[in-house]
# Entry
Amino acid sequence: MLTIDKKRLTYKDINRLPEGSYEIIDGEIKQMAPSGFEHGRYEGFLFSFLWDKLKEKGFVSVGEVGILISKEPLRIRGADVVYVSRKKTEKEPEGILEIPPDLIIEIVSPSNTITEMEEKIEDYFSIGVPKIILVDPHTKKVFIYQNGSKEIKVFRFDEEVEFTEGLKGKITDIIKS
# Structure
């Protein structure tokens, strides 16, 4: 594990990063607030839904999954839920993801700002992530961002959402509240 005794982290440090809840923005660690119980519950149910439906087609992970955005300056984002298809890799990814996931789901926390979420979406699109879904427990809305489209699709929790091609579901059914 790396001891943070310098200001800027580089790509050489990627396999020795310390444990914790943070992102790396332009070589600097940006601490993230711990997520709350509700946030974790949403992550868990969404992971279970994707895992159940997609485990034969790819890999699903949860819990601030590190995704490499750029090597120089080092930029790593933490995503709530990710799906990587076997079309991208036959081997289950390890460590920081260095390939763009097919799908990223972010659960909006009360501490998130619109600017923070927009910057994350721009970073994900910059590496070729085709689809990003934002789930907002406060407004009970789902926002779907498609790479290359300026349109943002908005759904209520009781409306059917397409997660990946052929996989649809209602957040109300998935969350089981």
In short: The longest strand covers residues 58-70. The mean pLDDT is 92. Strands lie at 22-25, 28-31, 58-70, 75-85, 103-107, 131-136, 141-146, 152-156, 160-164, 167-170.
